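User: Some background: our group keeps a shared notebook of sequences we're curious about, and every so often someone picks one and asks for a predicted structure to add to the entry. Today it's my turn. The entry only has the sequence so far, pasted here. Could you supply the structure so I can complete it?
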Amino acid sequence: MSKKIVILKRRQLLLSAVLIVIAIAVVLIVSCFTKSNNTDTPSLENARYIPGLYSSDIQLSEYTLHLELAVDRDCIKSVNITNLDEEILSMYPLIEPSLQAVSEQLLGGIAIDAVTISEDSKFTQMMLIEAIGSMLEKATLPTEDSLLTDSDF
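Assistant: Of course. Here's the predicted structure to add to the notebook entry:
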C-alpha cells in the first residue's frame, strides 16, 4: 500500500480560496443580470389598475379634505383622509365613520357601483364615493374597447 503525501504551501491554499470566492461572486452576478424580464415585473394582462397613490380634494365650506387612494394592480389597498383633524371632525362628525364604511366595502372587493350606502350618512357617503370614483377612473387601465383608433375621428 502506497501512501501519497501532498504538501501544499500556504500561498497555494490562499490563492485557491481567493479564486473560488471570485468564481462564486461572478456566478451570482451573472445570474442576477440574466433573469428574465417577465419574472422581475408582473405582467399587466390581468391588471385592473395602474398601481400607485391617487389623491383628490373635497371642499367642505372653508375646509378642504385631502382624500388618498392607494391601489395595487388588481385591488384597492387603502382609502384615507390625510388632513383629518379635530376641527373638521367636530364640524363634520359623519366623515370618519362614512369613510370607514365605504373603505371597508371597497377593500372587501365590492365594486364602487355596488357600495351600500347607509341612510344615516347618505350624502356624506355619496360625496366620498364620487371622489373615490373619480380617482378610480384615473387608476383604471384602459381596455381595448376604450382605446381610440384612427377610424373614430
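Suggested note for the entry: Helices lie at 10-33, 37-40, 86-91, 95-107, 122-139. The chain is about 40% helix and 15% strand.
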